[in-house]
Every structure is written in structure tokens, then in C-alpha cells.
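Each record in this resource describes a single protein on a pair of labelled lines. An example record follows, reproduced without changes.
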Amino acid sequence: MTQATMASEPIRDEIFAANRAVGRIAFAVAAGPGGSRRTRVHEAGSLRARFPNGNGETLDAVLVNVAGGMTGGDRFDIGIEIGPGAKLSVTTAAAEKIYRSLGPDTEIGVKLDVGPAATLAWLPQETILFDQARLRRKIDVDLARGASLLLAEATIFGRSAMGETVRSGHFSDRWRVRAEGALVFTESVKLDGGIAQQLAQRAIAGGGVAVASVLKIPGDEENVAAVCAMQQAFAGEVGVSVWNGLALARCVAADGAVLRHDLTLVLTALGAVALPRLWMN
């Protein structure tokens, strides 16, 4: 390696870093006489938060990525605080697309603080990974006494309708949920290298390329029974279980359309909150 080449490498790194999308949203919600209202909103970079309904017991929030997608080196951070007794439903304006990376990971960090007797429905639209994408996502939730949570995340590995296949890449998804300071749910999913081969394994996705998890706290046997009652209507594979006061549903599907169909049925069966209107478009 020549001296000129070595000198140019820091310049290339600086140019690469300067062209990465970095975004942050932080907002707080409080209960009031007319329903839940935002009390503080901070936006930075390519992330925006919009609140389409000004009236109602539950405040709706829509997260918007004005960059139009994410790729290696991009980072988004989301921090939300829901005050005592407040109710919030969060979705995204569109499916988030994670494009091919030349090396660095795409990073998403989510921190959700749900106050006493408050309610949060975290219902983003799907995350779509392209071939050779690299995504590292962390979701941390803190629930105070009497708080309720509905947390759903859906991931699609390649758009089947477009003939796309995610042959390789990296996907890391870590969830940590605490109730009154105690860790009540933890999960880490990691697919690295040959993603298509891993998804083809029966113990992972059995050839499916679209997956989703739905966590409900508090959850009970009635939630399980409601999901199981829809078994004949599911187009893909859906499983549900309950333990220690929480309910968890898993969906695996052959493509994104089937996953959306089944996920909508699961969320409807759980009945915790009305589905975001953007899901119906």
C-alpha cells in the first residue's frame, strides 16, 4: 500500500460518515381531561413524528423516515415516555427498507418508558431487508406498575413479489422488557451469513421469508384462546403461548402479504387497541 493510498483512506471514511443518515426522535405523552396529548417533541436528522389525531383517549403517533430507507452506517434512535394513565399508539408511515451494506451495520435503538397505568401499542409497519443488508436493532421497554404493552415487529427478508431473495447479510434483533424494574422478557435473534439457508431450516422458518412477533403484557389464557379461534383463517403458520402474565404470538409466512394478513388477525384477536389506519391502506 502506497503512502498516497494510506492518506486517502481517512478522507474516504470521512466522506462515507458525512453521507450517513442519522436520526433521533424523543417525545413525551401525558394524560389530560380531553385525552392523551404530547407534551414534548424533539426531532433531529431524518426522523419525524406526526400526530394525526388531535382528539381522543389514545394519541396516535406516526414515525416518518424522510431519508426513504436505511443502509450501512445509518443510525436511528427513538425515545418515548408515556406518562401516568396516558395511552399511545405508534406506527410508521411506511415499511422501513434496509438496503445493502458495504460493511457497517444499520443500527436502530428504541427506548420505551411506560408510566403507571399507561398503555402503549408499538405497531410499526414491516421492516424489509434487501440482499446483503446488515441490521442491528435493540428495543428496551420499561413498564411501571399497572402499565399495558402491545409490542409487534414484522420482518420481511426480500420482496417475493419483486423476485428478490436475501441470500446473505446480518440481522440482529434484541428485546428487553422490564416491569417495575424486573426483567420479565428477553429475546435475542441473530441471523448471520447465509440467511436464505438459515431461513430454510425447519427449526427456524421452514422456508418462510416473513416473520413477526407480538408481545402482550398483561396477557392471559383468553388471549391465547382468541388467537387459536382464528386458526382456520390464517394463511401462514401462527403459534401463541402465555406464561407469567404475558402472551406471545409468532407468525411465519411465505411472503409479506401473507404475513400482513395473519398479523392483522392476531392483533385483532388480542383486541388491545384499534389497528392504525395506515395499516388499512
Observations:
- Residues 44-280 form one domain.
- The longest strand covers residues 182-193.
- The chain has one domain: 44-280.
